[in-house]
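tool=predict chain=A
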Amino acid sequence: MAHAGQRGQDRSRPGRHRSKHRKTKTKTHTKAQANRDTRTRTKHRRRSRTARRVLRREVPSTVALLADERDFAAMRQYGSFAFDDHGAYLREMEGLLKALAARGVHTTVALFDPVAYEEFCADTRLDPDTPASRTRYTAQLAAAGGTVTYEGQPVDRLVPRLIGVAEEQATWEYATALLSRAGHHGECHDDDTARAAFERAGAALRAAVEAAGPGMHHLVCSVPADGTSLVAVLHADAREAGPPQLSESSALVFRTVLACGFALRRPGGLVLRTIAADTPETVRGWALHDGWLRPLSEAEVFTAYCTDADTGEPIPPEHGVEYRAGIPLSRPE
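tool=predict ok
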């Protein structure tokens, strides 16, 4: 009986029932907390991924493109270069550009030059046969300028623009070097010569565009230099009131080339073609003379435009174009 009474007493102890209930509640609480912790970690991971996506949109990208088949062929010597067909390569590059644009990434495109790349690797002691070296070279291209912003244009429209920008960049670099040499006199270096020529070139450009009046102006400046010709092209939109609208980078190249002609006393020339509403398309010209622009006569402008520069043979004038004398421009004091 005593044993049986003990068993009955144990069953009736309220402490035992409360202890068992407490353990059940503790397990339930622990499981719920674990679920909450899991949900919290998941939420943090999602926020982190979202933040990284947002940050990727804040990081610009530069893509270097092999636009020419010969340049593409030159890169095939490297085993780490994964492409063997130029057409397929261009399609893949276009797909990459579209994917970057779809993610909201600001992307610029540069022209990849295998010769310059090889020189870059030699100067920096990098192995040219690695993707990392190509990435380093692309980053240098982005820093140096000469890039085109990708705005969804197809590759067949992007490539000619890239080539034009690369040529413009090369012209500017060569003209800058020539202009710097203009200030050297033996062991002395005089920056005033180059600076004054650059300021005078800006004044000449403004004067020519203002003298031509309203319209769309297409300007070409050509200056012979060391067996070649420096050629700069500039478009100026003066159809609306106020200063003419033009590309700052193209204007810089134009002024630098014109300044070279002024500083080095080279026999260059400037031609301005104007398209305006309700008037014939007109062409005017000036010759570089004594550090300024000398207006050409109507006959000189006609001869310059209607003569083949390589053969010297006459060529027919353009239909609907009027060849007019250059306008005298006031030389700055």
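Residues 1-20 have pLDDT under 50 and may be disordered. The longest strand covers residues 216-225.
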